[in-house]
Structures
1.
Amino acid sequence: MQKNIIQVKNLHKKYGDFEAVKGISFDVKEGEIFGLLGPNGAGKSTTLEIIETLREKTSGEVWVDGLNLDTSPNEIKKLIGVQLQTSGYYPGLKLVELIRLFAGLYNEVIDPYTLLDTVNLRDKAGAKFKELSGGQKQRFSIATTLINKPRIIFLDEPTTGLDPQARRNLWDLISNIRKQGTTVIITTHYMDEAEVLCDRVAIIDSGKIIAMNTPDKLIDELVATGFERPKEVKKANLEDVFIHLTGHVLREQ
Ligand SMILES: Nc1ncnc2c1ncn2[C@@H]1O[C@H](COP(=O)(O)OP(=O)(O)OP(=O)(O)O)[C@@H](O)[C@H]1O
């Protein structure tokens, strides 16, 4: 039985009079990729930022690896890796310089080149952040979440705005990070991404969890209600055509 590395119980968050998170509860098991899915404004980022200790909750309880968020936020910070928005990096610094800077903040000694290898960016070590493509920036920002050797990483919409190949490359990267034993919590608007990557997902709507299970079981439950797609679906879609024609290999734009 896997242990619960994150437990969230009856979490509420109000911004003034507006309640963005309305009493949600869920557990994340150690070593899983857990997805928070939901439309714009559902409360996904708010929930993530509360667990990341970056935002105050209104009420409810959160534990990370047995540590209570109210009493041990600093200990929790040491266990987690948080992805910055790509606007959060000094654009004029080289990748190796940025890694050394972050490592210094975490008081970690790491080899920047080894870290860049894990995200396939060694050949960009001397490039400035602003010179990277969108996909490369995302890969680099995922690399920086790993600097403090976290047990859990939080990825907020990591593939938004990327082309189909860059998205698939990030899926491979995220799967590899999990294979090393790191727990991953991810938010996404892409259902194909959640289906491929996530062991379990919670679907959030208007601040409430309306479903939670493995993608497979959620689909089976829907089918069991008699649901059928309105028309026969072809064996491939336009994205398959695009990937078939342009390849799945890593491309540097
Ligand atoms: N600092 C804030 N002050 C006031 N309202 C906020 C603040 N941050 C978020 N909200 C509101 O809370 C709700 C939830 O926002 P949140 O960013 O958590 O949603 P989300 O599910 O991550 O959405 P998206 O998919 O668009 O990123 C939204 O209605 C948003 O406008």
Note: The mean pLDDT is 90.
2.
Amino acid sequence: MEKPTKITSVSVKDIRFPTSLQKDGSDAMHKAPDYSCPYVAIVTDTGLAGYGTTFTVGRGNHIVCCAVEAFEKQLVGQALSDIFNDFGSFWQSLVSEDQMRWLGPEKGVIHLATAAIVNALWDLWAKIEKKPLWKLLVDMEPEKLVSTIDFRHMTDTLTKEEAIDILKKMQSGKQEREKELLEKGFPAYTTSCGWLGYSDEKIKKLATEALAEGWTRFKMKVGADVKDDCRRAKIFRETVGSDCLLMVDANQRWEVQEAIDWMKQMAEYKILFIEEPTNPDDVMGHATIAEALKPVGIGVATGEMCQNRVMFKQFLKAGAMQYCQIDACRLGGVNECVAVILLAAKYKVPVCPHAGGVALCELVQHLSMFDFVAVSGSMENRMIEFADHLHEHMLAPVVLKGGRYQAPQTPGYVVGMHDKSLADFEYPNGAEWQRMFKEGLFQPE
Ligand SMILES: C[C@H](O)[C@@H](O)CC(=O)C(=O)O
Ligand SMILES: [Mg+2]
């Protein structure tokens, strides 16, 4: 009998990039973020390794790295076949370990760490099957895929049987949709022209260039000052015209009524959605905003800080999100993302994943592609965010053509980074960090 492949080690590096220097990624709540990720490697006794990341914006990265290390005991010595034969139970054992669950449960730092680990496991599984993750998910039997989900606290809304039924109904036409995906790619929007810390000139220049590259969907940051936001929206509209889509993102800055008033003032710029208008846990606040903005044609989008499937369940049931922005690293990895994609399908809410961060574009593309081929069957109203930063560090960076993600072909759920990038940007001893400390660009912590 063949020996089962076992996990021999779990390691994590604290990787940070100095994006604050150019105000890349800046918004109303994170004025100078340094895009960062714990970089997790799960190595097996065959030498095969899976890599996973989660996203943070600087100093807090170290805390998530510690949380990843705390999971080591639950992973080392495990046979991959045992994990993949009943991934739902294994996922549940990770998030329910009785000494650790008090830190969440299933939220915050501990859930970010769960995501990095779980995504590394899916990277291993997809590499073993020699398929990119989206294809692994698309080809999986509905019963098998659904067995990876922990249905606890979801069954009042979506049962295992209903989930299997959604997937079974979409079996027909799968081949045609896969062909369409491979030919045309998946629609995207860009956030890279509209970070809050960018000058008007920079916004105009970047939007002009993006338009020339074929982009037709744009998002800009708002929330600091309504007059500034209107001026910047006007610049966008003058640059990209009235037919392109324009979305805005307040990163939780407002009170509920403030969000309504602010967005009514911006309505003349034809805004498709307001993202994260208020506190990410305020389900009823989002519902109130959605109701109030319906007459001016603005939807509410949220999800990048929506902690788990139980929160998504509430937002979807309450009509509090018109665009469901799953985040591959905020939810507890692929298992929970698939659960939310199925929930969103039940409520007919389009999934438009969040991807402003390190490696998020590389991850979420798989989730939307799976959604299109195997769950929703539609690209209508659906788009994946694109943020044009740090892809040069990735071993298999995303490929975009004319504002559309091209389906990745590399086996895995790939967030592997170049050795030199890891050596340069590991905090605080990486060569680039040492140089920046010496030049006084940053103070060591
Ligand atoms: C701090 C991040 O850049 C955040 O602004 C990303 C985000 O909200 C988005 O991409 O959406
Ligand atoms: Mg956002």
Note: The chain has two domains: 7-149+420-438, 168-411.
